[in-house]
Amino acid sequence: MNNLPTVTKKQRDIVDLLYSYRFLNRIQIQTFLKHKDYKTINLWLRDLLDKQYVGRIYSTDFAERTKPAIYYLSLNGIRHLKSMDFHSVDELGKRYREPTRSQAYIDRCLLLADCAIALEQARNEDDWPQSWYYFETEADYMSDSFYHFLVDSELAHPHLCYDKQIYEGCGVPTTAESYFLEIFDPGLPRYRVKKRLSDYIEFLGSGEWEDENKDDKLPIIQLVCPRTSDLIYAKRRTRGLLSEDWEYDDESRPHIQFTTIDKLKKLGILAKEIWEEA
Known about the structure:
This protein has helices at about 10-20, 25-35, 40-50, 75-85, 90-95, 105-120, 140, 190-205, 210, 230-245, 260-265; strands at about 25, 55, 70-75, 130-135, 160-165, 175-185, 220-225, 255-260, 275.
């Protein structure tokens, strides 16, 4: 792979971001890189495009021209990542199909990136108490990361995992919570929604989490539904499934929360008011 066109360290960072998030627009890439000059970002992206490290989705339609272009990994970007011998071959193989992804899939990736940006920007390491967020995308935990045990799980494959930790002073955090986030695509059949709900509840009662974590505090499951009608169905179904093993006032009862795509887009992942408990 030594014959690949030369790119800079910052451009390789863009390739890594596209591996993790699959699809990103220019604004998101600039935000992740914490770079102030959009012109420089555009130059890097144009060079990556010319060298076939990335592909681009850009509409020339007048009504769409104000929207930023969307980028994804292309042939040389995938070859570059293969040469690093870090990511699984199967996972990298999925990137060859990026040009054929549905609009719903692309929209979900962009929304997940916005969630990650919100978590990153909410970190407070300068004042006390400190708040700190750690997060991994599905692609991240397919590599050797903190949530790597989910690769072998037959029940839980969230799109985003994140931890919230609050430190009152040096040492152990005074508050620590883990979250699994999954976004249901529009048009997902009800039987598949039902299966995902059942899988998460089975995961929460299976002991898989406790086997991997010293803290037996279960993760909070956050599920994002396309429409309000989907949320009502999913929440009602979840309550019925939970009642089979836990009483409503049982302190050990898992937390499963719901919102809609529109609310998540409008108010963001950290807005407590958008989440409805099952």
